[in-house]
Each structure stands twice: as C-alpha cells, then as structure tokens.
Amino acid sequence: MFKKSIIISIITFFFLTLTTSVIKNKARNLEKDVLILKKDISILKKQISDAEIDFIYLSNPENLIQHLEISREHYTNFDHSRVFFSINHFMSQDSKETKFYKESNLK
C-alpha cells in the first residue's frame, strides 16, 4: 500500500512536470509569434502613413501640375515594351534578348 502511493505520486509528479514544460514552450512560441506580428504591424502602419502622405500630396492637382512643369525635361513616357505582366513574361523577353545578342555577335 505504501509503495503503491509512492509510485502514483512519482508518476503524477513526472506527468505534471512534462505537461508544464510543454505548456511553457507553447506559450513562449506564441509570445514570439505575437512579437513578430507586432513588428510587422508597426512596419505596415508606417508604410500606410507614408502612402497616405504621398496620396494627399499627389492627389492635389496643383502640386502635381507644378511638379510636372518643373521636371518636364526629366519626365518621359515609359516604353510599353518594357512593361512585364509576370516574371515568366520577363524571363521569356530576357531570353529573347540574349539570343538576339548572341546572334548579332556571331555575325
């Protein structure tokens, strides 16, 4: 009877110790995830703040017209052939240019 109660106590102690360590590890991992998410949220808040400032500045037509008039000599249209819709589109165009470059150097 005495040995039986000691064995039950030891098993209970080890079980509680094991469950405590598992719970602590899960809590620590959750805290790390929360800190990472808080950091991401603060970065995104700063980015949205910057975007709002840019939007307010650029949505004012007087500022935009003034900016374009000042930098008219630096303002050029973007060539439509340089607009890529996906990475695959870019890679295919890049491989075409490489083939063309190799063929022109061979001649």
The major sheet is characterized as:
none
Q: List the secondary-structure elements in sequence, H or E.
A: HHH
Q: Helices and strands: which structural class?
A: mainly alpha
Strand composition percent: under 5%
pLDDT averaged over residues: 78
- Assign a percent range to the helix content: over 70%
Describe this entry's structure for a reader.
The protein has helices at 2-59, 61-70, 87-106. The chain is mostly helical. The longest helix has 58 residues, at 2-59. The model has no long low-confidence stretch (mean pLDDT 78).
Supply database-style keywords.
single chain; 107 residues; mainly alpha; 82% helix; 0% strand; elongated
Describe the secondary-structure layout:
Layout: H1 2-59, H2 61-70, H3 87-106
Quick gist of this model?
82% of the residues lie in helices and 0% in strands. By secondary structure, the protein is mostly helical.
